[in-house]
Design goal:
10 helices, 59% helix, mainly alpha, binds zinc ion
């Protein structure tokens, strides 16, 4: 891959050597030296949001299927499930398409951050989930569980609650109509680095960082939900 060790600067090499417990200085150094790669990062996060939605929808279908014994209903659900398999396949290709645009500092920072299975329990992302009415705002533990329950072939869809989370739907007592779902998707589709919200989500998801904070990204992984 283009991110081979040959291209490491002396400073990055030293930071890697001294990383021990705190990965912050290394991640911040790489962040400072990454330019012009924002669109690819946003596209990747948007793809991951779609993957999360898909995986959560798939889980609901599978659970529903287990509850019914009517052959016609099972047939219809199986067809829908087959459609979702195809959607996942395409989204996986899309994910890789944008991931392969990452330049070297970003690429290494991303691989390091994502090597921690609980990366998405970063404080910023947990707060975001809780404030949007997701499971991080309750004590059901759904978000924490996803790190271990998402099968290897659905790993790219591991993350916080989407509009398709069955636990969230049960908790609020209603599912959204398709047009309302589209509204929510539009609202949280990341697009512009000048927006404060987008920038916060990008830093936390790709780098483990938080603006104006020197905290170790690993200390920002919070296995206990914020519970708003
Ligand atoms: Zn949820
Ligand atoms: Zn969550
Ligand atoms: Zn839940």
């Amino acid at each position: 891959m283009a991110s081979g060790k040959d291209s490491l600067s002396t400073e990055e090499r030293n930071l890697i050597k001294n990383v021990k417990e705190d990965i912050g200085p290394l991640q911040r150094y790489r962040y400072r030296l990454t330019y012009d790669n924002t669109a690819a990062q946003y596209n990747l996060i948007n793809t991951e949001q779609k993957l999360q939605e898909l995986v959560q929808k798939e889980e609901s279908f599978i659970n529903e299927m287990e509850l019914t014994s009517c052959p016609d209903e099972i047939k219809v659900m199986q067809k829908k499930l087959d459609g979702l398999h195809q959607d996942y396949f395409v989204l996986r290709q899309t994910w890789w398409r944008w991931r392969s645009e990452f330049t070297e500092y970003l690429s290494r920072a991303f691989d390091l951050w994502r090597s921690y299975p609980h990366w998405y329990l970063h404080r910023v992302l947990r707060n975001d989930c809780a404030l949007k009415g997701g499971c991080c705002g309750r004590d059901c533990g759904c978000c924490l569980m996803r790190a271990t329950t998402s099968g290897q072939n659905r790993k790219l869809g591991t993350g916080h609650c989407s509009i398709e989370c069955a636990c969230c739907i049960r908790s609020r007592g209603f599912d959204l109509t398709d047009s309302r779902k589209a509204e929510v998707r539009d609202l949280f589709r990341l697009s512009d680095s000048t927006h404060r919200y987008d920038d916060q989500i990008l830093r936390a998801s790709m780098w483990g960082l938080m603006k104006d904070s020197e905290e170790n990204p690993l200390d920002l992984i919070n296995k206990h939900p914020p519970l708003y």
